[in-house]
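Example record

One chain of 224 residues, shown exactly as stored in the release files.
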Amino acid sequence: MTPADSKSPPLAGLRMVGRLALLLLVIAGIGAAIVNRQSLDADSLAAAIGRYPAAPLVFLLVHTLASLVFFPRTVLGVAAGVLFGAWWGTLWAALGSTVGAVVGFLVARYLNAGFIDLESMPRFGPILLRAERGGWRAVAVLRLIPVIPHSLSNYALGLTRLNLGPYAVGSLIGQLPMTIACAQFGAAGEQLAAGKAGWVVPTLIGLAALSITIIVPKLASRRP
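Predicted structure tokens for this chain:
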């Protein structure tokens, strides 16, 4: 037995322990998010994050963790608009959504390690295999047409053999219209609540972005 062979079983055991620990952490986080879901609205999130001097970095951390525990990214998008305004809110929400998607993708890829075969998943397997073959364009369409919820799609796409680059680009593009809509609506609500007149433009931009998420899926469903 070579030295490499003698080290292989302990290393494999450590990897398995690491995967199990990470899986338990994700499950615990999902449970905590479900229990506290009612108290985690956009205004309370914005108020909690805004207490920190490095609010954008805190927001990105919260967004990343929330993406792992199935917390609605729409709430986070609205919170970004409330906290940072229409344009900076859109930037931080888009970045947070993409970072969260990438982390979920990498977590699933690390946990899976070949244990799950997409061909054995009759419902979602064919969709994921098409995304795997289609690259970033297929990922963008999958994000824009929410066949699979956001957090679940992060994990599900991590089971494919997609490269990280195309996945990240497709996720950013596909999530952008809803992200813009949520951040603009959050900013408009903040302006309206403060009695300011700057809520009209963000509302119109938000409606335009939201219309993309409604029209595109309908057009796609009519394609043969």
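Notes: DSSP finds nine helices and no strands in the chain.
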